[in-house]
Every structure is written in structure tokens, then in C-alpha cells.
Amino acid sequence: MTETTLPRPAGALARAKRFRSPWTVSALLLLAVAILDPGRFSTIGTDAARAFAGTLPFILVAVTLVAYLKASGAETMIGRAFEGREATAIVLAALFGGLAPFCSCEVIPFVAGLIALGAPIAAIMAFWLASPLIDPGSLLITAAALDWPFAIGKATAAVGLGLFGGFVTMAIARMGLLTGVAKPRPRQGCGCGANPATGRPHWAIWTVPERRDVFRTEGWDNLVFLVKWLILAYVLEALLITYMPADWIASVVGGEGTGPIVLSALVGMPAYLNSYVAPALLAGLMEQGMSAGAAMAFMVAGAVSSIPAMAAIWALVKPHVFALYLGLGLTGAVIAGMIYQAVI
């Protein structure tokens, strides 16, 4: 008897792919809230929409810049700029990341652009880890709630975490363990690149129809990609803020010693509290017995490894790079907590 295998219908594959789409997951999460907890649906939806609207200008700037660099062929300059200068790039990325006024999700569009343009993963990691931790506004808020030594310690931790993550990533990459960093994405357009006659970018892209087509295609593809993942990230953020009570966090991370510092970092990773909300909560936790080192570990881990940011990061890089990001964020948070506990 001849055994035959029936192929899976193409329509079923398409439906399964659509079901796993970030659009579908976001819609199902909101639908579940509307059915199970209708009284909070409006609040959760509004919070997610407001957070996304705050990030949208950064998305548009990043998408436009990347599309222009792609269309002009200037992306080749990125690679040349970092040749032989990876260590310098890490230092600059950590310093810039520590000063840039971006939260963990606002960093995503710029990191997506850096990945698309071929920047070294070590410099990207340095920027990615340092950037969410501090900005001028959150520095002042942290100082008001927790005093200036804590605020300065947090700013130092931001740059230190970027340097730590960048140089560790560089060492791992040089061992050949970080090949294939970005997840594959469909590429369209002609891929004009630099001027073949001169090897230089063609800045006046509006004069060449093919380059205008690349600009439109790259811009639209990157915009859709970032929007769908960041909408999911902000829906997750709104759900987390709504349903994770601060009292539970307080009961878990109190106490002295190394144990609470490690536990605070572990709890802080998924417990999204941005740099404007966390200082007030941590001030209350410290009054209830939380150590300063545990508070620092909690704040650092929560900034670099929140669930909304991780959802977007997962969309950009392959699992081994994602795991490295989480490991560096957790390890750096614990180290920052221990150092701060030792020096205060």
C-alpha cells in the first residue's frame, strides 16, 4: 500500500501566521480585558495609546533617517566609521546612551536603525543598555525622591553598564559566537547603494527614481515593523502596570545583604517602572527596610529589561543575542547594586 502525505493547505498556513502576528496578539489582549475586566479597558487602552504617541516622533525620525541612508548608499559609511575603532565606539555609545533622553522603548527605533546600517553589535549593546537608565529629567526626579548620591550613582551605573555590556559583547563577538545578530526581514527595493563610479553616497536621492523608490519602500517597511511591535510592547506595559501591585513588590525585595540585591534585580526585570515613577516607589520601599543597594539593582534592572522593551528587542535580534542582553542587564544590575551598597 502506498502511503501518501497530504500537504497542509496554504490558507491554513497563512491564517496561522496571521494569528501569531503582533497585531493579532495586541488585539486579543485588549479583547480579553474588554471581556474580563471592562471597567479597566478604557484606562489600559488610553495608557497604551498615550505611551505609543510619546514614542511616535522618535519612530518617525529614526525611520526617515534610516530610509534616507539606505537610499543614498550612506550605510556603507557606518561600517567604515567603525573599522578598527570598535573600542572607541563602545565608549562613545555608552557615554551618549547615558545622556540621551530615551526610555527603554524609545531606544528601539534607533537601535533598529543601527542594526540595519551594520553598526557593530558591541556598540549597539553599549547604547542599548545605557540609554534607558538616565536623562536630565529623571536625574532631577531621582535626586528629589532619593537624594543626589543615589541619582549620581544611577547616572554612573548607566555609563558603567554600557561599558561593561559593550566590552563583554565585543569579546564574545571576537570569539565568533555572535554571528547572525539580526532576525531576517524581507528586503525589497533595488538596493542602490553607493555610487559605483565613486564609491560615495548619492545624497540627492530625489533626483534618481530608483533611490526614491528605495526610500519609500525602506521607510514604509521599517515603520510598519516598528509600529506593530511597539504597540504590543505598550499594551503589555499597560497591563503590567495595572495588574502588578506595588505592595507585592515591596513584600518581595525588602531586607539587607546580597540576597535582596539579586532578588531585586530579578523582580525589577519584568516589573516595568519607568525612571519617573520608580524613584517615588523606591523611596517608600527604602523607608520600609529595602537597602540602598537593592534599590539600585531594582532600578537598573527595571530600566534595561522591562517587558515592553524585551518584546521589541525580541523582534529585532536572534534568541542568542536576546539572551545575552538579558544576562548583561541582570548581571550589571546586581554589580551596580553591590558597588553602590559598598560605597555609601
Automatic annotation (TrEMBL):
One of its GO terms (cellular component) is plasma membrane. This is Permease. The keyword Transport does not apply. Belongs to the UPF0718 family. It is a multi-pass membrane protein. It comes from the Bacteria. The chain crosses the membrane at residues 20-36, 48-67, 110-130, 150-173, 220-241, 261-282, 294-316, 322-343. Keywords: Cell membrane, Membrane, Transmembrane, Transmembrane helix. It is found in: Cell membrane. It comes from Maritimibacter harenae.
